[in-house]
Amino acid sequence: MEILEKVAYMKGLAEGLGLDTKSKEGRLLTVMIDILDDIALELQDIREDQSEMEECLDAVSDDLSDVESYIYEMDGEYEDEDDEDEDEDEEVYETTCPNCEEEIFFDETILADGCVECPNCGEKLEFDLDDEVEEENDEEE
Ligand SMILES: [Zn+2]
Questions:
Q1: Ligand 1 mean position to 80 CA, how many Å?
Q2: Higher pLDDT, 127 or 85
Q3: pTM of the prediction?
Q4: Are 122 and 98 in contact (CB under 8 A)?
């Protein structure tokens, strides 16, 4: 039974009892019943508002996923253009991940950093700069 129905039932009972509203107890009970009635009505309003908001939120969520798919499509197009530009401007190096044998492509900036992360397995590959170190050592000796 809904709270509103319960309150209505209680009101009926109170009327059936013939509550003496002039007695202290009768007045107290009448006030309590009124308060319960108000609470039940407000609860119903809140529930209605909430279900309205849920509908709105669903609509917003649907719109948002439309926008997302639109943006990702755009992003994909731009990425392709960027890749072409990079190919023209910078030299691309290639190595093979020793962990998963994925071919990894990288540019000079990553070569300068000395390491690259495998996009397939996440293995961190460090480039051997031993040649340069050896040369330096030779000079010292
Ligand atoms: Zn790998």
A1: 24
A2: 127
A3: 0.43
A4: no
